[in-house]
Design a protein that fits this description.
By secondary structure, this protein is an all-alpha fold. The protein is about 70% helix and about 0% strand. It comes from [Eubacterium] hominis.
């Protein structure tokens, strides 16, 4: 379901990295990080990052 980059972004999100820190770590812009997050939220039909994380865990796409 997730692209490689989307998974990387969400793995870092659940490790408590901020958008800016994720951007720096992945060598991409803040906007690109936000786009990846938005794309995943759209795919899942959820309204927030936390909801997206919960759904991804339920779908076995992410591990805590």
């Amino acid at each position: 379901m997730l692209t490689k980059r989307e998974k990387e972004v969400f793995d870092l999100l659940i490790d408590n990295y901020s958008t800016a820190e994720i951007a720096e770590k992945m060598h991409i812009s803040d906007k690109t990080v936000r786009n990846h997050i938005s794309n995943v939220m759209l795919k899942l039909g959820v309204k927030g990052r936390a909801q997206a994380v919960v759904e991804l865990i339920k779908l076995d796409e992410l591990k805590l």
